Amino acid sequence: MAMERFRHSPLPRPRPEYSEEQMFQLIRVLELYFNQLDSQTPLQAEYFRGRGDKLTFPHIAASDSTDQIATGDDTPTIVTWDTLESGSGWTLASNAATAQYAGVYTIRYSLQFVNTANAVHDAVVWLKVNGSDVANSATTFSIPARKSSGAPAYVCGYSEATFTVDAGDEIELYWATDLAGNPTTPTDGVYIFHDAAQVSPYARPAIPSAIGSITFVSALP
Q: What's the CA gap between 102 and 85, in Å, rounded?
C-alpha cells in the first residue's frame, strides 16, 4: 500500500470580532482533518508518527545444512542454500535469490571454511548478478594448514557488499579455492563445512556451511 502524507486545509483567517460563521468554518476544517487521521490504517498511523517498527522492507535470509565441495581446483563454484530463514520481496530458487523490487541492497554472508591439507590454502568469494561478476565484490580468505594432530583448521569467511538491483535480477554467490578438498573421498584441501547439532560434550546448535542475507538499503537514486 502506498503511503502519502496528507496536509490539512488552510485555516480561516481570523476576523477582528467574533463571527459565528468563521467559528463554523474553523470547526469544519478541523473535523475534516481529524476524519483523515481516523481513516488511516494502523500501519499508516505509525508511519505518520515517525515510527518504522510496523514497516516491512525487502529482505531475504538463508542457510545451508550440507558440506559444499568445489567442483575442482581454481574452479568457480556456486554457494548453495537449502533453508529459507526469512524473506519478503525476494524469492529463492536454484541457489539464486531473485529481487522483486529495485533498490540498493547489502549482502552479508558467512561461510565455514575448513582445510584438511598440510599447507595454507586460499578461498575467494564473490557476487554475481544475472550471471555476471559484480565489480569489486570479491574477498580472499586464507585457511591455515591443519593442526599437527591432523585435526582440520577452520576459518569463518565473513564479508559484505552493497550493490544495486532491478526487479527480476538474480543474485548468486560464488567461491573457488586453489586446492579443492572432499571429506567423502577423502581428499585433503579446502571445502565449506557443515556440522549437525550436538548434545555432548556440550549442547550447541548446528553449524551451517553457509549463512547469508540481503537487506534493503535505499531506493535507487
A: 22
For 105, what's the count of Cα atoms within 13 Å in the CB-facing half-sphere? 30
pLDDT digits (tens, 9 = 90+) for 101-110: 999 999 999 9
Count of Cβ atoms closer than 10 Å to residue 214 Cβ: 23
Q: Which residue has the cell 476576523?
A: 15
Q: Check if the beta carbon of residue 10 is closer than 8 Å to that of residue 53.
A: no
- The Cα 76–Cα 175 span in angstroms is 6
Q: How many CA atoms lie within 13 A of 196 on its CB side?
A: 3
pTM across the whole model = 0.78
> Quick check: helix, strand or coil at residue 2?
coil
Q: DSSP strand E in the chain: where? A: 59-64, 77-78, 83-88, 90-93, 96-99, 103-115, 121-129, 132-133, 139-143, 153-165, 170-177, 190-192, 210-218
Q: Which three cell numbers stand for residue 137?
A: 565484490
pLDDT tens digit string along 47-68?
Answer: 555 566 667 899 999 999 999 9
CB contact burial 105-131 (16+ within 10 A = b; e otherwise): bebebbbbbbbbbeeebebbbbbbbee
